[in-house]
Specification:
alpha/beta, 4-stranded antiparallel sheet, 26% strand
Amino acid sequence: MQLTQKNIKNNSLLLDISNLNVFFNTPEGTSHVVKDANFNIKKGTCLGVVGESGSGKTQTFFSITGLLANNGYAEGKAFFKDTNLLTCEDETRRGFLGKSIGFIFQDPMTSLTPHLKIGDQLAEIAIYHKKINKNNAMKRAIEVMDIVKLPSNRDIINSYPHELSGGMKQRIMIAISLMCEPDLIIADEPTTALDVTTQSEILNIFNDLKKNLNIGLVLISHNIGVIAETSNELLVMKDGQILESGDTIKVLTKPKSKYTKHLLSCIPPWIGN
């Protein structure tokens, strides 16, 4: 398939977050897990979000996509296509998720349906959101499999999730997120369970998506070395706060916070050489 550039201005503002706060009601009281976050994402770029487990990085993006647990709530502004995702109707937010916004979770098996063939799982996304028939949906499925560098043959189309390797399942998750030609893809720890070679292949796919399809990407990871391979801008989070942000190269070469310096000290010396 020939990758086609979307007819949109490169680097134009896609998602604008201001004064974002996320809370959870617990038996012990209210827990404040994201504190006054401010950042934005542009089309054709990748925002890397790094921090240890519990830093608030995943909950930040769960809050704007309506994926918080029932005891959680968010305050602030999260504008996507002139709509504040924090205050709009649930139906409006659901309309964005899966169509204009794709979300890739850490474990593909939590998102893939075990008893459905891969081709059917891809097709049903387009049938539901794009209102097209199954034949056209299957054609689109083959197109996106080509984009994520999977062989679009009957062996894959007719496979069940458990028959695929971890790397192939993660490629399928990227393919699912692409079915409706999204403007934004949020990937939460997409390479954590993969070997080094497969990690590199997945990151190359993400780089192709932002370059060739002008898609805005958010890459969430605890591994700053993985983030460095793909992101244009970087957020460093700890205890619900953004400690440092800016151009990835500048943050990595001239870190200001002690925490960023600590994360960088944990990168094996061969990374980036």
